[in-house]
Amino acid sequence: MKRFKFPSPFTVLYIIIILSALATWLLPAGSFDTLAYDSDQKIFLVSGNTEAQLPAKQEILDSLGLNMELSKFEEGKIRRPISIPNTYNEQESVPQGLKEILFAPIKGIYESIDIILFVLIIGGFIGVFQHSGALDKGVGLLAKRMEGREKWLIISLILLIALGGTTFGMQEETIAFYPILVPIFLAAGYDLIVPVAAVYGGSCIGLMGALINPFGTIIASDAAGVSWTEGIESRIAMLLLGALVLIWYIVRYAERVKQNPETSILYGLGVKNPFQDREKSAAEEKMTTGTWVLLVLFALTFVVMIYGVSSLGWWFEEMTALFLLAAIILGIVQRATESDFVSAFVNGAKDLLGVSLIIGVARGITIVLNDGLISGTLLDEASNLVSGTSPLVFLPVLMIVFFVLAFFISSSSGLALVSMPIMGALGVVVGVPTEEIVNAYLFGFGLMQFITPSGLILPSLAMVNVPYNIWLKFVVKLLVPLAVLGALILIVGYLV
Q1: For the chain, which end, N or C, has fewer CB atoms within 10 Å of the first or last residue's CB respectively?
Q2: Rounded to whole angstroms, how far apart are CA atoms 259 and 197?
Q3: Which SS3 state, helix, strand or coil, does residue 231 take?
């Protein structure tokens, strides 16, 4: 018999879409009423089982069981509809059939076009930079300078990426780093799983210990009715201790692989370096002034991106424009002809086409669940599961509940707005501080991002040619100590 080969990311995602559609036939449909703020008329709009227009007053929020301030809506901090506690009702089933399964990835690509275009332009940018040969020279120089101290590269990278995750939710942006980092890590004697573990793992730790991430912490805190500064001590502990656990886990593995390549989890699988055609003898070439200029411009592009996202409110449109402009500047500096520039840009974008499509197809999972009206059912069942338990049991179980919900709702802001009003109200009944419920959400959501196919792990793995099942085998032993750490921090936060 031939050895079983794990299916590609596209097949994995389509299987999950089919299973999600099957769930819409098996689970009852239902939803919560939602409340949205109309800034023009200054009124609340209730939608769902009840349709109503209500005056935008604090008393209305209090009467609906929404423990949040009116100013959050007036200042535009809460823009999307939020769930209203105790309004769940079953609805007529909307099972998703063959047509919906077929259209789900197509709709997902439409809804993810901003991320897809961002990734493609990054590919073009990398292609133009690679055409200059500066990347090969820079990698060779760095590998030579870091010889014997490669583990500090891993540690520095994890800390920097975690810092980006905890401040502005850095995750999609990490896609751009793999073409640069993979040759460096391989030159250091590591395998292909180390760069994705360091980069993607660092971003997940940043999400778990998100101090000021506007897409996670601030939106969740606003939706729960507490200041984002409350409970920050628990998040600091999660960020620091979680980073230490991740560093210990990856460095131990990486050093073992460096000493004996046969200990690699990828050994004997025939996994190819996706950037091997870019490895040249440039490592032995001398660095010229022109090369240094290109390297500085290349690095400066990422610095500007991080500053724009964290301080100027940039998102995909601005980031995409930045990389397009940077590609043009790099082409001018290296004096590339028009045909060479276009060819390098298109070839670079082509290298990331598969990654881009994976992002869109993954979005199709959420579309099937939402159109099938079972997202509300899952949330209602989750709230029933944790109700009536003691606070010391409630918080760890709630973290696990958020871990499961994040599989179905992979958007951090989306899950926060849907679940926080419900779980926040439930926490008041149980006697748990609302800020610890926000922390349970962050810990559970960040933990799921390590493995959820509907997130960015599949595109990240596609960048380095690592099969999904191999990644699961590698990361499952990491999730256990992180989950235990999260549960302990939640319990200590409640007791203190």
Answers
A1: N
A2: 19
A3: coil
Q: Which position has the token pair 């299987």?
A: 15
Best CA proximity match to 363, nearest among 466, 456, 277: 456
Comparing CA positions, the residue from 208, 168, 167 lying closest to residue 402 is 208
d(CA 330, CA 333): 5
State the residue for tokens 């380095």: 464
Chain segment 118-129, per-residue pLDDT in tens: 878 888 887 888
Q: What does the pLDDT look like over 330-374, one tens digit per residue?
A: 889 888 888 889 998 998 888 778 778 877 887 888 788 888 988
pTM given for the model? 0.75
- The CA–CA distances, whole Å, from 418 to 99, 435, 439 equal 27, 17, 16
**What residues have CB less than 8 Å from 276, skipping those under 6 apart?**
none
Q: Which of 189, 139, 82 is nearest to 418 (CA)?
A: 82
Residue 13, SS3 per DSSP: helix
Contact between 189 and 154 (Cβ < 8 Å) = no
Q: Which two tokens stand for residue 192?
A: 């292909």
Residue 491 contacts residue 397 (beta carbons within 8 Å): no
The H-or-E segment that residue 305 falls in is helix 289-311
Cα 219 from Cα 236, distance rounded (Å): 18
Which residue do the tokens 């050093």 mark?
Answer: 255
Check residue 286 and report its DSSP letter: P
Q: State both tokens at 87.
A: 């309004």
> What is the distance between the alpha carbons of residues 366 and 374, in angstroms, rounded to a whole number?
10
Helix 391-408 and helix 468-495: axis angle, to 10°? 150
Q: Are 90 and 30 in contact (CB under 8 A)?
A: yes
Q: How far is CA 369 from the centre of its chain?
A: 19
Distance of CA 315 to the CA centre of its chain: 15
